[in-house]
Amino acid sequence: MSIIFVKTPKGIAEIEQRGGGLTPRVRRVLIMLDGKRTDDDIRAMALVDDLEQTLETLVEAGYIESPKQPEASAAATGAGIVNTVTFREVPDKPDPKEMEMAKNYIMNTLKTFCGPMAHLSIYEAVTAARTHEELRAQFVPWHNAITLTRDGRRRAEDLCADLLKVI
Asked: What confidence score (pLDDT) does residue 74 get?
């Protein structure tokens, strides 16, 4: 599954002013991201060995993001990940073990596919989550992070299915 990124206002300002201290290689990738090209298109054009790391750097620094769909209930949409993600119904008395399983699953898959220090904002939000709804709000960022890697893209469907069982 390919991801299309768009420049944030900070990314647009960086293109115009060159104030962020980006390396020429990272800047070239930022320029190529136009909201139409997928990460696979950029990979073919950019001659960059570590595109996943470059994209991750640009996302974490706030220069790019995945396009957002209109705000909708987190329980009804995966914001473009798949046509529609349907979360299971939250039980009247949520099981703390399921919450812990979901948190561990998110953090372990991020470590496995993205590295131990990548996407710290997702780790922090997952750690702070106290309800299923708060965890579900991290589903889209988690999926986007996982699919930045080749192995993550290959396994994304299975990973999502496993997470949706407990989230």
From this structure: 38
**Number of helices (H), then strands (E), in the chain:** 9, 2
pLDDT at 127: 92
Distance CA 9, CA 32 (A): 15
Phi, psi at 4, each rounded to 5°:
-105, 125
Is residue 6 classed as helix, strand or coil in its secondary structure?
Answer: strand
Q: Is 25 exposed, middle or buried (0-12, 13-18, 19+ CB in 10 A)?
A: middle
Confidence of residue 133 (pLDDT cuts 50, 70, 90): confident
Residues 6 or more apart whose CB falls under 8 angstroms from that of 44 comprise none
How far apart (Å, rounded) are the C-alpha atoms in residues 161 and 143?
Answer: 11
Cα–Cα dist 110/55, whole Å: 15
DSSP annotation string for 124-149:
HHHHH--SHHHHHTTHHHHHHHHTTS
**Which residues contact residue 113 at a Cβ distance below 8 angstroms, ignoring those fewer than 6 apart?**
145, 146, 149, 151, 152, 155
Q: Record the tokens describing residue 142, joined without a space.
A: 């988690």
pLDDT of residue 80: 44
For the whole prediction, is pTM greater than 0.70?
Answer: no
